[in-house]
Amino acid sequence: MNFDHWNYSITATLFILVLTPLALYFGYWLLITGTIGALKMLQSKKWQPVIGKIIAAEIRFNTYSNDSSISTNFRFVLKKTYTYRFKGRVFTSDQTLASDYLYDKEFKTLERFPKKYGDYKEFPEYMALEKMSASVIGRPVTVYVNPNHPASACLENRFEKEIFLPIFMGAILSFWATYFLFTLVGSLMR
Known about the structure:
Elements: H1 10-44, E1 48-65, E2 72-86, E3 89-93, E4 108-109, H2 124-136, E5 140-145, E6 153-154, H3 164-189
Antiparallel strand pairs: 1-2, 1-4, 1-5, 2-3, 5-6
Helix pairs in contact: 1-3
Protein name: DUF3592 domain-containing protein
Transmembrane segments: 12-39, 163-182
Domain DUF3592: 52-158
């Protein structure tokens, strides 16, 4: 490669050196985790159902913004921990869907709720989950167990269509960044 006649501006150079690797990383991360999640969801449809018991329930939250509002919104979820017996051994899990472990970091514990938005206990969604959390502990529940790896289980073995969003976004972003990089390298090699 001959860089003696480099003629890109500083902005273009920064874009190439910083944003292209980030786009590649993020795009392929979305594509790979989405594909793994979709495969896990499809596999879970064949998992064996057993009866388990909910032993704990914790409310977690994540933040998101609507396009129609400038404010930050919160989504609260009930993360259930349950035990189940499979082939004489007792296991513990907290996955609702088979792909939950891929996106577990999106939901934070309530200790990390931003104080600038007030008290999370005032949100109606939180109050409804608070009532539900006390009533689910000790209840029997159907658990779907991976017979090849019994430590892997989930409460719901359905296929969520939302898993296609990260696959689609990752494919577009990663293929665009890869095409851009190959085009750039090809033009520099001439």
